[in-house]
Amino acid sequence: MSLKPGRVFSGARPTGRQHLGNYLGAIKNYVALQDEYECVYSIVDLHALTTLESTQDLRQNSYEMALDWLAAGLDPQKCIIFIQSHVPEVTELHTILSMVTPLGKLTDLPTFKEKARMHPHNINYGLVGYPVLMTADIALYRANWVPVGVDQAPHIEFSRETIRSFNFHFNTNALVEPQMKVTNVPKVLGIDGQQKMSKSLNNHIELAATPEETQQRVLSMVTDPARIRRTDPGNPDVCNVFSMHKIFSGSEEVEMINVECRRAGIGCVDCKKRLAKNMNASLQPFRDRRADFDSKPDQVWDILHDGARRATVIAEETMHDVRAAVGLAERD
Ligand code: SF4
């Protein structure tokens, strides 16, 4: 029996190689939580099917994401890492939960409206039922906690209501209502300095990029727009390069830039080169670990398959209670 104070579940769509925004916004927190909680982390490949984009890359994207998670410090001895579709009970629970979910509630969700706007020619059932599948993920592993940023709070509220509704309808406590673990993660802007870092916007910096690629991306970062000439004083408070310096550079260098930028004592190119150098130094251990895992792909798949076996043990317990509560005939 675990001595940890509860179970955390989180899932992320397999988007392939991860970027700094993924790391600072989620993975870093995953790594911190694994020491304190019993953590279950899922690469949610079934969710990726809802928009039916380049599914031929799904397997490779799942593998690349696992590489990044492992290299960033997720430890299969401390947490469960697995691929969602390897535990098919989630689809059964999804079907059962869909019976207690009013359709209007799903179509009213802002995320559905946004997705429907983005994919007007493919508004399929999976897209509508996405939050129910997400709820099934959380409920199947009886998570007590779900780490979220403030903007994701409505999703978890939906899951909590759906689980409550199931338990009420079938007069059971088979499913656990999760709590939100709101994490104060920084909003990481992309190299455009405007929008959240995202692969689809191509404004990202991959964790596993080469030092040269990283430097190239950093050199193309948008800076304080008011600083047009080298001799113009700048304002680091509105510059994304400076925000990144605060993450990757030492305090003395950050303070030097803070002062020198304001009196045009340092140029933006020099400032960015310093950032690229510090970023590369900081990411190198990660890249080394990633290359090491990548040289042993069988080991990575073994970790994922073992994770699925451990996740299945929890899932089977939950489904046993769910089937009994619903009144489905027992399996042999
Ligand atoms: Fe930004 Fe650095 Fe240029 Fe100042 S010197 S505007 S902090 S890139």
UniProtKB/TrEMBL annotation:
Claim: Chaperone is one of the keywords in the record: no
Biological process according to GO: tryptophanyl-tRNA aminoacylation
Class of the enzyme per the UniProt entry, highest EC level: ligase
One MF term in the entry's GO annotations: ATP binding
Keywords: Aminoacyl-tRNA synthetase, ATP-binding, Ligase, Nucleotide-binding, Protein biosynthesis
Catalytic reactions of this protein: tRNA(Trp) + L-tryptophan + ATP = L-tryptophyl-tRNA(Trp) + AMP + diphosphate + H(+)
CDD domains: TrpRS_core
Entry GO terms, CC: cytosol
SUPFAM superfamilies: Nucleotidylyl transferase (SSF52374)
PANTHER family registered for this protein in UniProt: TRYPTOPHAN--TRNA LIGASE, MITOCHONDRIAL (PTHR43766)
Protein's UniProt name: Tryptophan--tRNA ligase
InterPro entries membership: aa-tRNA-synth_Ic, Rossmann-like_a/b/a_fold, Trp-tRNA-ligase, Trp-tRNA_synthetase
Keyword Transmembrane tagged: no
Lineage: Bacteria, Bacillati, Chloroflexota, Anaerolineae, Anaerolineales
Gene3D superfamilies linked to this entry: HUPs, Tyrosyl-Transfer RNA Synthetase
Record family assignment: Belongs to the class-I aminoacyl-tRNA synthetase family.
Enzyme Commission number: 6.1.1.2
